[in-house]
């Protein structure tokens, strides 16, 4: 699976949009981009995934560049409860046949 | 919402004891996983299973073993606990899809 690069930490003011970048320059055509987050020491929680089109759900939006070498997770109106470590993961397919491999992620701090 | 359970949630045990960490899910998911995470550090995959009687080792070498005799149950066993095994252990399951559902974790302390 392609390696991802994320900034180690970011701050965001409460109520503002949080934009979390991820670089995956070696991604191949059949690899999906997944985002998970981990609040404190709880188990990670799925946020969103995509292949090449932008995706939106009730939690976030995922913007993937046209060359697919990078993506951005957007939390439109960050709250204090969004403080967490956010993981960008690239994995072949969406079948679950390859376990998720977590990197260091980005520690997002939402500030009041 | 996924139903995946781990017991115990917290365990403090002495060196040399045999322990089994339980993980159960009620969704009928074929795929199950064990991750290990030290405080403030990355999650590391230690074991996974694609179905009954299927088990594989993950990326992180682990002295633990697993079994998958029933779809809903994926226990992890340490034959002889050591202080280096002190960590949080997270279990997850997945249907044939894109999402892994995680349990609440077991915090293990070996004295």
Main sheet summary of chain A: 5 strands, mixed
List the total number of helices of chain B.
0
What are the segments of chain B in which pLDDT stays under 50 over at least 5 consecutive residues?
A: none
Give me the count of strands of chain B.
Answer: 11
Distance between the termini of chain A: 37 Å
In total, how many beta strands of chain A? Answer: 9
Order of helices and strands of chain B: EEEEEEEEEEE
Question: Percent of residues of chain A in helical segments?
Answer: under 10%
The coarse overall form of chain A would be: globular
Secondary-structure element order of chain A, N to C: EEEEEEEEE
Helix share of residues of chain B? Answer: under 10%
**What structural class results from the helix and strand content of chain A?**
mainly beta
Please describe what this structure looks like.
- The complex is a heterodimer of chains A (112) and B (111).
- Chain A has strands spanning 9-13, 18-23, 31-38, 45-50, 55-56, 61-64, 70-75, 84-92, 106-111.
- Chain A has 112 residues and is an all-beta fold.
- In chain A, the strands form 2 sheets. A 5-stranded mixed beta sheet of chain A has the order 1-9-8-3-4, with no helix packed on it. A 4-stranded antiparallel beta sheet of chain A has the order 2-7-6-5, with no helix packed on it.
- The radius of gyration of chain A is 13 Å and the shape is globular.
- With 111 residues, chain B is mostly beta strands.
- In chain B, 0% of the residues lie in helices and 50% in strands.
- Chain B has no helices and 11 strands.
- In chain B, the strands form 2 sheets. In chain B, strands 2, 4, 5, 6, 9, 10 and 11 form a 7-stranded mixed beta sheet that branches. In chain B, strands 1-3-8-7 form a 4-stranded antiparallel beta sheet, with no helix packed on it.
- In chain B, strand 9 (87-94) and strand 10 (101-102) form a beta hairpin.
- The chains are: A mainly beta (112), B mainly beta (111).
- Chain A binds chain B through residues 32, 34, 36, 38, 41-46, 49, 94-97, 99-105, and chain B through 31, 33, 35, 37, 39, 42-45, 48, 50, 58-59, 88, 90, 92, 94-105, 107.
